Each structure stands twice: as C-alpha cells, then as structure tokens.
Input
Amino acid sequence: MIDLQLIREKTDWVKERLLTRGDDWSPWIDRLLAVDQERRQILRVLEDLKHTRNVVSRQIGELIQKGQDTEALKEQMRQVGDEIAKLERRVREVELERERVLLELPNIPDPSVPVGADEKANVVVAQYGRPKTADDFKFEPIPHWDLGPRLGILDFERGVKLAGSRFYVLFGAGALLERALINWMLDLHTREHGYTEVWLPAMVKEACMWGAAQLPWLAENIYRDVEDNFWFIGTAEIPLTNLHRDEILPEESLPLKYVAYTPCFRREKFSAGKDVRGIKRGHQFDKVELYKVTTPETSNQELDALIEDARDVLVRLELPHRIVQLATGDLAFHSARSYDIEVWAPGCKEWLEVSSCSNCTDFQARRVNLRYRPSGGGRPRFAHTLNGSGLALPRTVIALLENYQDEHGRVFIPSVLQPYLGGLKRIPS
Output
C-alpha cells in the first residue's frame, strides 16, 4: 500500500501520479484523508476524556477517604466511560475504513515510466536477435496448435474432455520438454545466478492474497476453495511475498534472491475471446518465478539484474526476444515500474510475453509488514520487493516448437536442453 504519510504531505502529487494510470483515484484519496482526519480528532477527544477520568478518579478516592458523598461524580464518570467506549468503537470502525481504502489504491508509477492509457503506449527498449520469417525457414512455419498434435505431443481434445476449454494434455516428448525446461531453468538460476530455490504451496490463505496485492483487483480472476477459504495461486510471487511476513530482516541479509517453480491457476475472466487457439492462455500452467527482497536504494539496480537473469534463459535457448517497458496505464496494480520480456513465435507470427519483471517498491512490503533493520542503526524500514518470471511456460514451449521446426515437421532440441531430455536431439527422435 502507499505510505499514508506521503499521501498526507503530497496529496496533489499522489493524485496526479495515480491519474497517469488512466483512472481518477481522487475520490478514494479524499475519503482516505477524511477518515484519517476523523480518527485523529477522535483520538484527541479520547485523550482528553481519559485524562479527565483519571483526574476525577483520584478526586473520588480523596473524597471517599474524607467520608464525602461521591455518587454524583461516579455517575459523571460512568457517562464519561460510556462516551469513551463509544468513541473507541468508532476509532476501530474508522481504522478499518482507512485500511480498506488504502488497500484499494494502486501503487504510484515511477517517474521513469512512460505515460500512456494502455499497452499501445508501451515502449520497446531493446531487441535481441532477428525474428525468423518464412524466408528464413524456406517454408511457411506451422503454429504450435497444428505442429504439436501432428507430433503427437499435444492433445487439445483430451484436455477438454478432462477439464473443459483452455486445458490440454502433453504426451511423451511434450511432457518431457516441459519438465526439462523447468529443471534446467531452476538449475540455471540457482547455480549461475545465485538464487535460492523454494518449494511453495499452490494454495494460500486469503490474507496472503491481500498481502501480495492480488486482492481486490484480481478477485474475479482467482480460483478459490470457498469452504476452507484457500486461494489457488496465479503466480509464486504470492507466497514468496508472504514468506517473510511480519519479519524484520538484517540489512546484511539483503538482497534475498528466491526462485520457485509452481503450477499456476487463473480463471482468465479478463481475456474472453483472446488467444483461444493453442496454449498461450490456459487456466493451468507452469512457471518458474524469480523474486527479490532489497533495500530501497538498490531496488532499481536489482530490477535490471533480474531482467538480465530472466533474459539469459532466452539467450541460451537462442530465441529472438525483446524488452518492452510498460506504460503507466498498463502497469499491474502493485507495480511501480515493469518490463515485459517477449519472445518471437514465427508460427503464431507474434511476440509472446514470457516474463514481466517489476519493481513493486515498498507497496507489498507495507501490506505484509516486511521490514529490515539498517546496518548503521536506526528504526526498521520497509523493504522493496521485485518479481519476474524466469520463465513462464507454456509460451516458452511455443517459442521452441515454432522456432526449431524444419520443413519435415520435426523439432530440434537446443543443445543446452538435450542433457535434460536424456540426450534427445529432436522430436520425433
């Protein structure tokens, strides 16, 4: 959440920055400041009433020792006590309202983010490798939704039979390729990029969803077990954000660098009619997630490093890709600055996002009360959190199938992956 003190001190600036996201959040901020002001006024009245009660209580004690009548004062203090109880109830109500409004406000976009209403204002900042076309292949490349079934490794009909639309089944070398990519990416990030692997639950408590800022903005896109109130994660970022909830970490331990593989579940309510062919957008998919906890001073530097760690996967797979900076109107609710990594899919003839790397500043840390103690002393400070896929499947699989196909319908396996597929060099072998 946004620092309340910042909203108090720079109200107009916060309103202006949030307006660049495309919506006017001024009514929320005005409501927030109104309940915040009411809370402070009530607290002042409460302080006066409690002081009065303490003073009069001492007077009553003195009068009792002198044998004087104290009933009138006692009745007066009963009324004061009732008023105190009433105001304390109101303080709790106001504090809950203040918290609710704070949780509904999105993060403030970093000044470096290009201003724009939606993805049309995103900026391509770098491209690596030339996208292959039919001229490079010497034939028309086949999209994965045709290529996979022809190879016998991808089955849409049985996926629908088992679970409905936007589900599929991988067979044989297809399942092996998925598993190989996950294992290879985990090894790359732990052995060469310095991340610590974490195995995580795929379901979490509701408080974790609020902490990671998935609620309230993604409520309609999340699967939920209503009876036990467990929420299925759409990304490992959710449990990773809550891993050090309510902790104070020593500055010397930062940055923390975690990598985790999890299955991910999304209802895709916001994508009706989009990417209906193939495996670009499913209700269940696999993802390797990169996550960092840093100091505020180093978070942007660590974001650059995170992008390079994620991009290194595509470099080693020799897949054409590009980096796209997201405009203010395309930022996720909790992000202050984001870059998408997109890979070229020649069969689909489009760029596919395989990672979105974000600096969430102290937005999530405030929601989960994640702080660190400065090495030089002083009060604990809120940490910064960063996340990015390293990478997401199945779009990485799509890019491999479509870029490494030949005119005979075979798919060759990049050399870095072959040891993870038992030496398999092509599909079919």
